[in-house]
Amino acid sequence: MRHDHLLSAKQLSRGDIEALLDRAAEIAADPGAVAGAHADTLLALCFFEPSTRTKMSFDAAMKRLGGDTVDMGGVESSSVSKGESLADTVRVVEGYADALVLRHPSEGAAKLASEFADLPVINAGDGAGQHPTQTLLDLYTIRENAGLEDLTIGIMGDLKYGRTVHSLAHALTNFEANQHFVSPESLRLPRGVRYDLHEAGANVREHTEVGDVLGSLDVLYVTRIQRERFPDENEYRQVAGEYRIDAALLEAARDDLTVMHPLPRVDEIAADVDETDHATYFEQAHNGVPVRMALLDSLL
Amino acid sequence: MTDTELRVSKIEDGTVIDHIAAGQALNVLAILGIDGTSGEGVSVGMNVPSNRLGRKDIVKVEGRELSQNEVDVLSLIAPAATINIVRDFDVVEKHRVSRPETVVGILSCPNANCISTANEPVESRFDVLDDGVRCAYCDTIIRESLAAHISVA
Questions:
Q1: Interface of chain A against chain B, CB under 8 Å?
Q2: Most buried in the list A8, A101, B21, B77, measured by CB within 10 Å?
Q3: Contacts of A112 in chain B (CB under 8 A)
Q4: How many angstroms from the chain centroid is the CA of residue A244?
């Protein structure tokens, strides 16, 4: 890769993405081949927000490459609780590790960290902004199941606050995918993402009903309504539970439809979908390890 | 002597910012960080007649020659503004404002969840688009009412 930091999916060219996905596939096929490739490398995990998959898969990825991790721990047990700025935190952490994985509740946090830290910064989610490593594993999963050529994808749910959506939409412009966005009016894509998609000449359509487009999709990417990002609880309640899929709904879909979700889910995908051939979200989560191994291997 | 000159006196040395969109003179001063505390003489004409604009504002700053970089940010709220550098009562330079690529420290991001609005040692930074500005940290785009987001005193 050409970049010392991975802050946004906008940085990634088609060539960058394909090289990383190819490398991830090699690693997935033979993880032992890279078992000691990054011995003595330390990866700092600074998560200012809760995480299960992203944090554990970065931890697993670094260790499977022969390195190790140092973990800031929860915000409540760190100096952040004493009022330390992010700029100070990352300048301290750079002395402890070779790269920094950062999750933070504020948009732009990873960019700010990259301006102060003298080590590679990987954005593991910044508020409602970007989540580029999730996008890499999403693209890997799409390539494995539906292919990235001539892709028609539906992206449904919380398009306003969903950082995985923003990153994925940017990255898919590299593949000229047909992107159908399905959401309530109040959770449509933010202006900044729309601007980028327009500038990229992306093939984009917006819908309020998934049924309008379901039958034409190769992939349906479902997202959780991000309760924690709503400034107003009432606003959340008005839309919560509106966009839910179940096995009965999917009878109108193509047999080869791939259903994805960045997880965690609340109730937007019913449990009966898990038993169908459409369900790909657990495989998607597992793909986080080889993809993040490939990314770390390229950055370190 | 024109009507405008009657309302706003001539200066010996300094900068005259003319053809400001009517009603924007105080925002121009705010963007330039000119509040009179540095002791410079400042004359402001608002809603004065203009052949080109109908009505316009005009600002004269005595004893200070503003650089192109300083005034280019004015293009965001006063794209028709002209800058006159005055020495010994004569206009020695006259030029237009042009759109800068970025604007640093002038505007405040309206996204309360943007890291640039937190207690961090950074100035706001916006990339200038054809029809607005965009926060370099959180990608929020401002197209309307730019003057409402001016953060300087």
A1: 83, 85-87, 104-109, 111-112, 115, 126-129, 190-193, 195-196, 229, 231
A2: A101
A3: 115-116, 120, 122, 137
A4: 20
pLDDT of residue B2: 54
Do the Cβ atoms of A111 and B136 come within 8 Å? Answer: yes
Interface test with chain A among B122, B135, B139, B142, by most A beta carbons within 10 Å = B139
Q: What are the pLDDT digits (tens) for A94-147?
A: 999 999 999 999 999 999 999 999 999 999 999 999 999 999 999 999 999 999
Q: What's the complex ipTM? A: 0.92
Q: Which domains does chain B have, with CATH numbers?
A: 3-96 (3.30.70.140), 102-149 (2.30.30.20)
Which CATH number belongs to the domain containing residue A90 in this structure?
3.40.50.1370
Dihedral over Cα of A273, A274, A278, A280: its sign: positive
Q: Which two tokens stand for residue B43?
A: 């004359």
Question: What DSSP string describes B100-145?
Answer: -SEEESSB--S-TTBGGGSSSS---EEEEETTEEEETTT--EE-S-
Inter-chain residue contact B138 with A129, CB threshold 8 Å? yes
Together in a domain, A162 and A37: no
Same domain membership, residue A199 and residue A273: yes
Low-confidence ranges of chain A (pLDDT < 50): 1-2
Classify residue A251: in a domain, yes or no.
Answer: yes
Number of CB pairs, chain A paired with chain B, less than 8 A apart = 65
User: pLDDT by residue (tens digit) across A37-49?
Assistant: 999 999 999 999 9
Q: Which domain holds residue A120?
A: 9-129+288-299
